[in-house]
Design a protein that fits this description.
Layout: E1 9-20, E2 26-27, H1 36-53, E3 57-63, H2 66-75, E4 80-83, E5 88-90, E6 94-96, E7 99-104, E8 108-113, H3 118-123, E9 137-143, E10 147-155, H4 174-214, E11 218-223, H5 246-252, E12 259-260, H6 261-273, H7 278-283, H8 285-295, E13 302-304, E14 307-309, E15 312-316, E16 329-337, H9 339-342, H10 346-349, E17 357-364
Parallel strand pairs: 1-3, 2-6, 10-11
Antiparallel strand pairs: 1-17, 3-7, 4-7, 5-6, 8-9, 9-10, 11-15, 12-15, 13-14, 16-17
Helix pairs in contact: 6-8
Length: about 375
């Protein structure tokens, strides 16, 4: 069903599907196959989320069965769906290397797989055959009121060690096995970090060049497999330059920078409530709820043992920043769906996902 151009909201979600693979195919290992019942439960869980939250544009990760996903989202009104890669198939029915995908209620007018600048990659000390661990998808979407918008979907390299040893196929002593495992973990984890940070860097360079050429607004969404604050990916939010005239910097830099949608949401709520009296706040329950949300810690999108972190993000260009003089939208909502992670019910959530689903609501500015 077509979406009215009068719609003053635009909802964007990033959604790690966790091994979305239609049976009778197997995921990584021959015994990892969904039963018909499990597959139906997974399909229904995804459908229930789409029906309840109604995102307009969705970036998906961990897609093994693109055709099945395309059919699922089409039934929910997403006429446009694209991938730029296919998963790898080994031994006829065992799949690995899932891909990213995008679904949209609005027309996708262009689709591309982002290619890294190999000359720059080699200058950074990377190999001459460097590639993204998973192909990065860029979809140009004709969004209401704002027009052509470049939406990038990523699934950066995981923290899993790049090196593994075969503990069963050696004659090492128990201590030697531990030592070799430790060395492989230290080196392999750092190798994954280098890959992940390099992917983000080379993608950002391509986004800047694309922005210079087209002037299209930018959205970067996906599973970053890292927090944005520990240094490995923080350059995605670079917004200052040393040794540059403040006049030039302020005039041009904002156009090429990205901001975390959560930070933009915080700024909107703080500014909207800055001049409201305490009595007014008490009356407006929606604003009170927003203030309470900001007073709490940001909702994690992933849990591992006793730890948790935010790994899934939506980053936006200045067209979605309320403080930018020419912005058309502002971030009016930021929601992480995590019921299946913190309070799972097997009958409902047994085949869901191991990530929270991040949804950003953009409101047209008056």
């Amino acid at each position: 069903m077509p979406v009215s151009e009068k719609n003053t909201q635009l909802k964007i979600a990033t959604f790690n599907l966790f091994n979305y693979l239609e049976p009778p195919n197997a995921c990584y290992e021959f015994e990892r196959i969904y039963s018909a019942e499990q597959w139906a439960k997974k399909q229904n869980w995804i459908t229930a989320y789409l029906q309840e939250y109604q995102p307009d544009i969705i970036g998906f990760q961990e897609v093994f069965s693109p055709d099945s996903l395309k059919a699922l989202v089409a039934r929910q009104g997403y006429e446009y769906f694209e991938v730029v890669d296919q998963p790898e198939i080994v031994d006829d029915f065992i799949y690995r290397s899932p891909v990213v995908a995008i679904a949209s209620r609005y027309p996708i007018v262009d689709i591309a797989s982002v290619k890294p600048n190999m000359e720059l990659a080699q200058s950074l000390g990377l190999t001459d055959d460097f590639s993204f661990s998973r192909k990065v998808l860029r979809a140009t979407i004709d969004a209401p009121h704002i027009g052509n918008t470049d939406c990038y979907v990523v699934h950066f390299k995981s923290k899993r060690s790049m090196f593994e040893i075969d503990e069963q196929n050696n004659t090492w002593s128990p201590e030697k096995t531990i030592i070799e495992s430790l060395k492989a973990n230290v080196a392999g984890s750092w190798g994954s970090t280098i890959q992940r940070g390099s992917e983000a860097t080379l993608l950002m360079i391509e986004m800047i060049e694309r922005r210079e050429a087209t002037n299209y607004p930018m959205v970067l969404m996906g599973d970053f497999n890292n927090t944005l604050t520990d240094g490995v990916l923080s350059h995605l939010l670079t917004d200052t330059l040393r040794f540059v005239s403040a006049i030039d910097r302020d005039a041009y830099l904002a156009k090429y920078c990205l901001q975390d949608a959560w930070n933009l949401f915080e700024a909107v709520i703080v500014n909207d409530n800055k001049d409201i009296s305490e009595n007014d706040k008490a009356v407006d329950s929606n604003k009170s709820a927003d203030i309470n949300q900001l007073s709490a810690a940001r909702t994690p999108t992933h849990y591992y043992g006793a730890s948790n972190s935010v790994l899934d993000y939506i980053l936006l260009s200045c067209e979605f920043d309320a403080s930018y003089h020419d912005s058309l939208y502002q971030v009016s909502g930021h929601h992480t769906y995590d019921r299946h992670l913190i309070n799972p019910i097997f009958d409902r959530d047994g085949e869901s996902t191991d990530h929270g689903v991040v949804l950003v609501t953009l409101a047209l500015r008056s």
